[in-house]
Amino acid sequence: xxxxxxxxxxxxxxxxxxxxxxxxxxxxxxxxxxxxxxxxxxxxxxxxxxxxxxxxxxxxxxxxxxxxxxxxxxxxxxxxxxxxxxxxxxxxxxxxxxxxxxxxxxxxxxxxxxxxxxxxxxxxxxxxxxxxxxxxxxxxxxxxxxxxxxxxxxxxxxxxxxxxxxxxxxxxxxxxxxxxxxxxxxxxxxxxxxxxxxxxxxxxxxxxxxxxxxxxxxxxxxxxxxxxxxxxxxxxxxxxxxxxxxxxxxxxxxxxxxxxxxxxxxxxxxxxxxxxxxxxxxxxxxxxxxxxxxxxxxxxxxxx
Length: 304
Ligand code: AMP
Ligand code: MG
Fold this sequence. Notes:
The protein has 304 residues and is an alpha/beta fold. The protein has helices at 10-14, 43-71, 88-95, 114-117, 123-126, 148-151, 170-187, 201-212, 223-229, 232-246, 261-277, 288-302; strands at residues 75-82, 104-108, 135-139, 190-198, 253-257. The longest helix has 29 residues, at 43-71. Residues 109-112, 140, 144-145, 148-149, 155, 224 line the site of adenosine monophosphate.
């Protein structure tokens, strides 16, 4: 995976997890890390500037998506992970709002059903992967199977006892499976970008309270969110291990500072645009023969 184009700024690379790196989340700022050019700018002004950037990125993304569709070479998989209320839904809504809906699919993964559990853990995700020319977004993903399931191993799918989560190397085995799965996809023309929306525990409290203080947001609240919040430290730990084990040069993780929604959204948009830029796509070339057919068709219609 290569980031390219005028958009590539150092701060994008700064949050890309180097393969093999031992991730400690407390070293990653969840707030906005000021870019050089924004150092002397107030928060309000920075917000305005980043929203302008997002607006431009949306247009760039719409163009990039068209090129992706026209060239029919690559598909793109965007994985979004994060604690409850980290901003996954809002990021999708804001970043993808300019993209042709026909060129884009979003899949939100909830608690697996019985049919899912009767299969291997990658099955339900592999059924809905983006085809060539498409952008596919996973709102939660197979990474839940090494996150929520790791914090609550009793939620694992049906497995022969001796192959279950209690067995030696179970989680390392899943990391290897995921890396191999992604390698397979990349080798077959899927560009993979993975974003961990990194919010602080305080910010989560604010957002959950906001849901409870606001009638229009009641529907977003689930008592499970509060229950899972009690496991914050365990989640931090499993996230760290997951990020350390599965950020690869072919499918890297970005740890996105997500306490400020407007900054997180712009960050994600910038990475996507730069990564499509790195593919060096061009519209399909027209052969002399095709050009002849086009001109003949044009003439036929005009003289009809
Ligand atoms: P939400 O994203 O708020 O709609 O919540 C979806 C819920 O589904 C979360 O509580 C996730 O932890 C849960 N979930 C998603 N994928 C899995 C999985 N593979 N195994 C268990 N729970 C999952
Ligand atoms: Mg939720």
